[in-house]
Input
Amino acid sequence: MRRPIVAANWKLNGNRSMVSSLVAAVNKHAASAVSADVVICPPFPYLVESRALIDQGNAYLGAQNAAKETNGAYTGEVSAEMLAEIGCRFVIIGHSERRQYYGESDSIVAEKFVRVQEAGLIPIVCVGESLQQREQGKMEQTIISQIQAVIAKAGISNFNNAVVAYEPIWAIGTGETATPDQAQQVHALIRGEVAQQSESIASELRILYGGSVKADNAAELFAQTDIDGGLIGGASLDAAQFNAIVSAAG
Ligand code: PGA
Output
């Protein structure tokens, strides 16, 4: 039985007053999410402050990115070890916005996956196709090569301590959600790809859906066989919305 995860990806949003109200409300609600894990991923400057507000079971702190290096002359970067030291448990890597706006290739994402695990943290590795790739019939090929790049670098056995998020780029922040059937199809594809190398790891792997998940479409998405929760952007900035999504998973 896979325990669902609902992760809040605040992206480049928030301020200190939002940290105190939103993290506190989500943390409190997480105690009632008896069968789901809740991960809160605010921007770096708010991680320490958020950590102090997370004291309920089921709630964890996550970061939105980590460096592919461990330390050294890399101005502006934050290492996975630093994130571990301040109490993070998860790190989102390879989000399509990082791939698109910051040039993160499949191989960079794979290196980050390894660094995050070396620091004792759990990577939430994002994959997803663009609208153009879907329309050109390249969705499967895109997803498979994104997954394979990480497997090739990290080894299949390390997927026993990782989470995958399927986020079709055309559904992120657009209000357009993949239908539960469309999402399920890709989740099954991802699980099948992992199963080719290890059926036991595939059956335990938690695969989240992300892309315009809201309180009113979450339950239907989470009811799909291979969907084990969600990675939530816009709706994670509103405590009532996000907590309703958590309830739909738990
Ligand atoms: P969204 O973002 O929920 O605003 O579509 C999801 C994500 O990018 O993680």
Residues 5-249 form a domain with the TIM Barrel fold (CATH 3.20.20.70). The first strand starts at residue 5 and ends at 9. The radius of gyration is 17 Å. The longest helix spans residues 139-154.
